[in-house]
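Re: that chain you flagged

S.,

Sorry for the slow reply, it's been a week of failed gels. I finally had a moment to sit down with the sequence you sent. For the record, here it is as I used it:
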Amino acid sequence: MLLALGLFVLVLLAFILTEQRSQSSMLPLVLFRITTFSAATVIDLLINFSFYWLMFLLNVFFQQVQGYSDWQTDMRLLPLTLVNVVGTNSSGRIAGRVGVRIQITLGLLIGALGVFAFLAFG
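Prediction finished late last night. Pasting the structure tokens below so you have them in one place:
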């Protein structure tokens, strides 16, 4: 685990140094001076880490604790995956109609309701 974290830090530093020296960078680092962009990037990173960590933990829970097979586990995780695919593909259009703040607020509320439902119904 520490080796992977150390490798991540090295690759991140190499990426930052490469981007700083590049004439046409893939990700202009000056964007991170904009507070809104930086905050949105950090929030997005945390949401993605938590989602994929949840997928991993649910996989382990269903197989090791509940005793489900691979197939049964996959069928239980399929709705979560499909909602993620549909939400990701439609989020741009929804944000254009209702605005980003409403979309983010509703998304966080729906996510919280999902967590509470999972805790309540297991």
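What I noticed first: Residues 104 and 110 are 10 Å apart (CA to CA).

Talk soon,
D.
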